[in-house]
UniProtKB/TrEMBL annotation:
It holds the Pfam family Troponin. This is Troponin I, fast skeletal muscle. Keywords: Acetylation, Actin-binding, Coiled coil, Muscle protein. GO terms for cellular component: troponin complex. Residues 58-106 form a coiled coil. Belongs to the troponin I family. One of its GO terms (biological process) is skeletal muscle contraction. It comes from Malurus elegans. GO terms for molecular function: actin binding. Binds to actin and tropomyosin. InterPro entries: Troponin, Troponin_I, Troponin_sf. It comes from the Eukaryota.
Amino acid sequence: FSHLQKKRRAATARRQHLKSAMLQLAVTEIEKETAAKEVEKQNYLAEHCPPLSLPGSMQELQELCKKLHAKIDSVDEERYDTEVKLQKTNKELEDLSQKLFDLRGKFKRPPLRRVRMSADAMLRALLGSKHKVCMDLRANLKQVKKEDTEKEKDLRDVGDWRKNIEEKSGMEGRKKMFEAGE
């Protein structure tokens, strides 16, 4: 059992050593990369931005300002052109990636909403013009006839309660009630 533990410890130690070596290598690569970028930046600035020599007279100074303004304008135009190219390229990339999704058959699912739909409408949507069966669920229900009970007959015979009260009001109504009671 101790033999297995020693092997595990050795494997763990080796893994940790490899991780630390990889991290050290990555750190040195990053340092080299940043140094190379800095050198490249210095070279670009030396090539495109010569050291500024300020002239002595006012007229030469104005000429220098005009040149600098012209340079700024041309750089702004280049920047704008580059931005437009970048936007076009991004749009093309989006279109191509959408075409790729379409070709693969993987579509982004749209957010779905709950829709109340009858069974007929659902079948029509699924089957299209082939759907001819009517799914009226109420048509298949059994018809049940109510039996007339005595209570319901009485209620129907009585009719409107107001008429009944008018008939029984006054002396004539009492007379009728008395005669009916006999």
